[in-house]
Here is the input.
Amino acid sequence: MHLIELLKDWPCTIQGNWRDVTIDSVTEHPNRLKKNCLFIARKGAHHDGMESIEEALDRGAAAIVIDRSVPECNLSKWSQRGVAIVTVPDCKRFLSYSSAQLSGDPSEELTIIAVTGTNGKTTVTHFISQLLSQFGIKTAVLGTTGCYIDGEKFDEEMPPLTTPTAEYLHPLLRKCKDRGVTHVALEASSLGLEMGRLAHCHVSIGVFLNIGVDHFEEHGGREHYIAAKKRLCSLSEQLVVNCEDVECMHIVKDIELPIHLFGRNIAGGCMPSEELIGSLPPGEHNRLNAMAAATVVKLLGFPEREIFTAFRLLTLPEGRMQLVEHEGRRVYIDYAHTPDALSAALQAVTSLNPRKLICVFGCGGDRDKEKRPVMGKIAENYCDTVVLTSDNPRSEHPLAIVQHILKGTADPTSICVVMDRKRAIHQAIAASQPNDIVLIAGKGHETSQIIGSEEIRMSDLAEAMTALHQLETFQE
Here is the structure.
């Protein structure tokens, strides 16, 4: 696409050489620049793209986009290097717009289902895909665990974000379309919505699952967090909403869009049999997740009887209530890292009637501190044994995080603290007996742990399997 064609519907000013400039791709990362690439000098939370303009020019950027005033001498210096300098009102929105345009606006050719909520986004998007596959619909899932097409992992370069940034999202949607995908279920995180990552993505159905405690600090408070979630309404043609969640219902009360409700006993106004509900993965939260997915698929025009029958085939995605077991000892790996998610996971395993329930968990650093004592109280109330450990402490001291969790417990002296996460997992499993359940919560599918600025290899699932194998070896 010629640069001038890309800019024709966008307010901007241009300096330097813009004639006959052809643009093939767009990026805000200098190390991703290639021939005929447009560089967006966006100001981010940790880095200002203006500081990378010289590097972008050295790497061969075809044009530069800025959204702030700069000294005339800089503009002159940059334009003398034979590139166009484009000034737009908002780099963030222009990145979204140009990414969509350069990819051929693939969301217009796909049915996009965007799912938001504090908990359950990954499970619901995978459930939607699994149900649609029963009707022969080729579906992609985009979210926390990566990209999947018809349940198979699609290896594609993506940042570790719940909702990909626009420069990754639209080319990925195009690749999905080129592979025969017709429907896409994607996770719409609060940060992704606030940052405008879906601003130029055509959403057919927006899904509201729940509003809980998470990311408040990153948004500057609870109200800002809810406002970010509400942005999905302005992007969607119609909504699917959890009628049991007060906050979700409040968000959509004045929205002039078709709204379809679901709850634990209804999916789009219909009720499946208790027999089919009983075939779902354990936990009331997964019953709710299945109803959300069923409502979406029913809204897409598929018969409810066949949708509910397919409940028997639903399986949880990686790291969600993932079971490994040995001689009666059951170990569940779950991504639960919020109070509501931890409570739901513990309720689910409690319903399986374990002899004793042991929980291993921690809380991430540089994230909402309010939830830590709440999660400590929840674990203490449900479990026979609680093992507190490190999660992703990031820049915080791991022990300070644990001390904060302990403030929510009635008897901190009864809580076992093992700061090394690997050792905590091994110790908890070694202490278990036949018919016990160990829940390892917080990291789920993740295969690394962030300590300070270092990222080390760490998989809860792998460590659990090793610990069970060592028990077997010891018994032999």
Residues 322-475 form a domain with the Protein-Tyrosine Phosphatase; Chain A fold (CATH 3.90.190.20).
